């Protein structure tokens, strides 16, 4: 039973944003940016057991100009932060960032002067993946959730308005140093 039986006279209507989102989500090219133990789990997810190639991610790119997804796997030191930002700036638009592991998300157990307390202080993060280290199944699940975000994403002027609204919300958010927990 194919799609031909479901559609009357072979006509399918959709939007340009829908088609572009479908194509973008099906062709992620991740940048290689493994910094610590999370990188081993990231490499494992590309192996034969977990096979990221099923989702259009056959090769981790060594050049940022060929990548559109940066998976920051592990802790980011203060010395590595400018390098990470430079690689992010060299990536082509549209680009996405996935913070893999608790060290990339919040500094983890390394609460000291040498480690950046969250990669979101350097680059905008689209998806946070918790765990120490997160399993390859968790990485694949995060990538699939990012696929859903990308497919629902806007194009052109609508995308610019969406980005501006997101940045405005981030600038108006309470700093994490002032957060005291949830009171119910």
Please give a structural write-up.
By secondary structure, the protein is an alpha/beta fold. Helix content is 38%, strand content 8%. The protein contains seven helices and four strands; from the N terminus they run H-H-E-H-E-H-E-H-E-H-H. It has helices at residues 3-6, 16-25, 38-45, 81-90, 102-106, 136-151, 156-172; strands at 30-31, 69-73, 96-100, 127-129. Strand 2 (69-73), helix 4 and strand 3 form a beta-alpha-beta unit. The mean pLDDT is 82.
Which terms would index this structure?
184 residues; alpha/beta; four-stranded parallel beta sheet; 4 strands; globular
Secondary structure tally: strands: 4
Distance between the termini: 51 Å
Tell me the helix content: 25-40%
Report the C-alpha radius of gyration, rounded: 18 Å
Overall structural class, as computed from helix and strand content, comes to alpha/beta
Q: Mean pLDDT, as a whole number? A: 82
* Estimated share of beta-strand residues: 5-15%
- Large-scale geometry: globular
Task: Give the quaternary arrangement of the chains.
Answer: single chain
Q: Spatial order of the strands in the main sheet?
A: 1-2-3-4
Largest sheet properties: 4 strands, parallel
> What is the tally of helical segments?
7
Task: Report low-confidence residues grouped into runs of 5 or more.
Answer: none
Order of secondary-structure elements? HHEHEHEHEHH
